[in-house]
Amino acid sequence: MLTNIKTSAPISTVIQIVRKPVVAVRVENRLDTEAIVDTQLDKVYEFILKPSNLLQVWPSLIEVTKEKIMSNGGYSFQWKYKMSGMHFDGSAEHTEIIPNQYLVCKTRGAIESTMWWTFRSIDRTTTRVTCSVEYHVPIPLLGRLAEVLIVKMNEQEAGITMTNLQRHFEIKTASA
Q: Which of 80, 92, 110, 152 is deepest in the core (most CB within 10 A)?
């Protein structure tokens, strides 16, 4: 049985692609995703670190502006996100960084969240990337059913984002 990386709770949803698993699980308003990426750890870390790169792999992230490097080596930036046909915007910053190992991003604005990215080398050309997100669904007036649907959509989005990350590096490797 697969388990949640952080809590050892049973995983409720498993999303798979043809060659490598991508796991997505939701525990209340927490979502954990993991993927095996065919590239060196430092390359995938640098890609994720730069917020505007996420536009290439995260379908509902529609804009990143005002990217600024911070003294901790991370970035602060403005973002726009589309969820269930609605647009949300806010700001974010990398609050904790251990280069090539760990990255924490906190968002503020219409969607408040904390994202923890971890990077583990499997071998010289393969990296395990994990992203855990705690967030608040910003639509309490629509009721529990709408919240359940949005949370389910976010689970799918997380799997798609990690699959897109894998494909991004598979294409780069094939064209090199």
A: 92
